[in-house]
Specification:
Hypothetical Protein Yqey, Chain: A, domain1, 2 domains, Arc Repressor Mutant, subunit A, mainly alpha
């Protein structure tokens, strides 16, 4: 079992013992998602490395961000608040997220290095930017910054 997976399991056990239902439920969902990833990858139980577990956590966090956005659109603040709490719990297991300014600086350096200009170069710039920011930022934010920089 990876270090991250062990840490999540221990936090889940602690949440159960302390009666923290929101935390327990969120971590249970995360553990199930990790187990599903193991099944999809046809790997033995507990054999995912930290990078693979990190990708599962990022995918679950993205689901929460999307749900928050949708619940906010339909004025369901109660459900949006619950998703925000779950996102905060998941964020504890993610690397620190990059700010827009940091991402913009990376995008500008990629554009200067590659000499990209115009929207036709967006794919190449996005590929480089996502590789450099992997796991530390949302792809939607990177896409918006790249789009603005190439206009």
């Amino acid at each position: 079992m990876s270090n991250l997976q062990t840490e999540i399991t221990e936090a889940w056990k602690t949440a159960m013992k302390n009666g923290e239902t929101q935390r327990r439920d969120t971590l249970s969902t995360l553990r199930a998602a990790i187990k599903n990833a193991e099944i999809e990858n046809k790997t033995p139980v507990g054999s995912l490395d930290d990078d693979a577990v990190q990708q599962v956590i990022e995918r679950e966090a993205k689901k929460r961000r999307d749900a928050i956005e949708e619940y906010t659109k339909v004025n369901r603040t109660d459900l949006a608040d619950r998703e925000k709490v779950e996102l905060e719990i998941l964020a504890q297991y993610l690397p620190e997220q990059m700010s827009e300014a940091e991402v913009a600086a990376i995008v500008q350096s990629i554009i200067q290095e590659t000499g990209a200009s115009g929207m036709s170069a967006m794919g190449a710039v996005m590929k480089e930017a996502l590789a450099k920011t992997a796991g530390r930022t949302d792809g939607k934010m990177v896409s918006g910054i790249v789009r603005e920089a190439l206009k």
